[in-house]
Structure formats: structure tokens, C-alpha cells
Amino acid sequence: QEQLAESGGGLVQPGGSLRLSCVYTGNSFNTLAMGWFRQAPGKEREFVAGINWSGSSPFYPDSMKDRFTISRDNSKNTVYLQMTGLKAEDTAVYYCNFDTRIATMLTPRYDYWGQGTQVTVSS
After folding, report:
1. Which stretches of 35-123 are DSSP H helices?
2. Could you point out which of 78, 96, 97, 113 has its C-alpha 20 to 30 Å from the C-alpha of 40?
């Protein structure tokens, strides 16, 4: 079975930065698109960023594009999310996921979310 393990969250002041990591355990990481999602209390899960198998053509919603950067290291089966200029509304549990294409990942098809990592932006 594929497994996902998120890490790197924590408590940060508004305007601060965090770098999240997600390690994929399974086969064929180099063929998979990877992405980040988040879910805040009382809100639905929200897509944050996606990246294709080679690291080209990263994709972000308009609300994330200026502050978040997704990247990957295929030698480590790891995808990263660098977040800067954090705001209180960024507070959420952050999860990663995978699919064959970014487009199909936008509506997640696989229920392998890992434990997530908590990001809290506190004023």
C-alpha cells in the first residue's frame, strides 16, 4: 500500500515561514503528480498546490500563488511546500496526496492522506 507522511508544521507568527515535507512510500514516485491540500476547522478540504512528476509546471490557485512554492526531490520520494508571509487564515492541517495528473488530483481520487501536519499562525 502507498503511504504518505507529512511533517514540518508548527506554530508561527503572522508573516513567518514554514517548509512542509511529505514522504511517499511506494512504487513509481517518479511517475506521479503530487499535491498539497489543507483543511481548517469547520471548512472543507482545499487544494493548495500541485506539481507533475518531473517538477515542471507547478500549479496553484490564485490565492496561493504569491506566497506558496511547491517542489520535489525524486531521489528522496519527497514533495515540499515552502510557505512565506503566513496569515492567520492559513491555519489548517496540511495533507499531501498523489495522482497520475495534476488535473485529476484537484478532485482527489485516493483516500491516502496520512496524518497531516498542523500549521498554526497565531497573532
Report:
1. 102-105
2. 78
pLDDT of residue 123: 85
For residues 56, 54, 26 and 6, what is the CA-based torsion angle, rounded to 10 degrees? -30
Mean pLDDT of the chain: 95
Cα 9 to its chain centre, rounded Å, is: 11
Unique residue bearing C-alpha cell 519527497: 78
Cell digits of residue 113: 492522506
Nearest CA among 119, 121, 122 for reference residue 37: 119
Please state the rounded mean pLDDT for residues 111-120: 94
Return the pLDDT at 111. 87
* DSSP line for 8-48: --EEE-TT--EEEEEEEESS-GGG-EEEEEEE-TTS--EEE
